[in-house]
Amino acid sequence: MEKIFTALSFLLLLPVLAISQTDLPNMDFENWYENHYSIIYPGNFYWEPNSDGNWNTWETGNSASEIPNVFPTERTEDAVNGSYAVRMETKSIFGQPAAGNIFTGHFIANMFNSQALFGVPFTGTPDAFRGYYKYTPGDISGSPDTCAIYAILSKWNGTQRVEIAKAELYQHQTVAEYTYFDLEFEYFSSDIPDSISIVLTSSKLGDQFIGGIGSTLYADNLSLFYDFSPVDNNNLEPEIKIYYNNSILRVQKNTPDMAIINLYDITGKKVFSTKLSDYFSEINLPSLHSGIYICSLRENNHNTITKKILIR
What we know:
The chain has strands at 3-4, 32-35, 46-49, 58-59, 73-76, 85-89, 91-93, 96-98, 101-108, 115-118, 120-121, 128-136, 139-140, 143-144, 147-156, 161-171, 175-184, 186-187, 195-201, 216-225, 240-245, 248-253, 259-264, 270-276, 280-284, 291-299, 305-311. Strands 1, 4, 9, 10, 11, 15, 16, 18 and 19 form a 9-stranded mixed sheet that branches. It has a 5-stranded antiparallel sheet with strand order 5-6-20-12-17, with no helix packed on it. The chain has a 4-stranded antiparallel sheet with strand order 24-23-26-27, with no helix packed on it. It folds into 2 domains: 3-225, BT2081, beta-jelly-roll domain (Jelly Rolls), CATH 2.60.120.890; 236-311, Sandwich (Immunoglobulin-like). The protein is mainly β. Helix content is 0%, strand content 48%.
């Protein structure tokens, strides 16, 4: 059982592990080892994802459940391909729901006061987070449980850890067969990250000891996708990047040319419009209803650039 600290407190370890990388090992969950933790009962063990070098890229909360000898996360042969995948199940331990989980970072076991320190060194800027999953939700007071699968890119700015991009999936319905997911990273900043946190759990609120007993999440063949599609230099458009976070729309372009930016709601109604005339602009958007919006930017005679943004 574990208490998940949502703050990326793993940042304290980053100076020691400052290894630039743009990919992660064991994302197909093929490598595991048996952790035999008891001298008195040498046959007792739980599965842990295999170590790479002197650090575990992947961790689980299993070490917090050694006393009851009940482990929510395990290796499974029910895989998309290859030999193994990861299986996470929300179990009852001392009467409390303990969610199965696997994540990048480090875990400090201390029963109900355990800590998950999310994040490992990472400097890539992937376009998408992909993989396969299936899920059976348990019941929480008459409602289905929800699993969580997400990846966060972040950077320590000297005073706090700031999110740069996020890709996320939350599912409360039964997904009986392995299903492919392709989650586009939503970037909030053009900064280069120094850490990536990937988290998968059978109960989204497991950090609060809330979950449906029996909720079961399988995952396999995770990957980070980088779009290296070739560009025709004869038709090269100016690079324009659009980011949205906390009611602020940020636009970065490589010319100071005048541009017009329009924002449309899901019905196609224009809800905002303004002009830009600089390399970098920060726009405070008016109060808008939660939902998906289309941001459209046109610079002089160049083609229109569009981006989908989510306003919560």
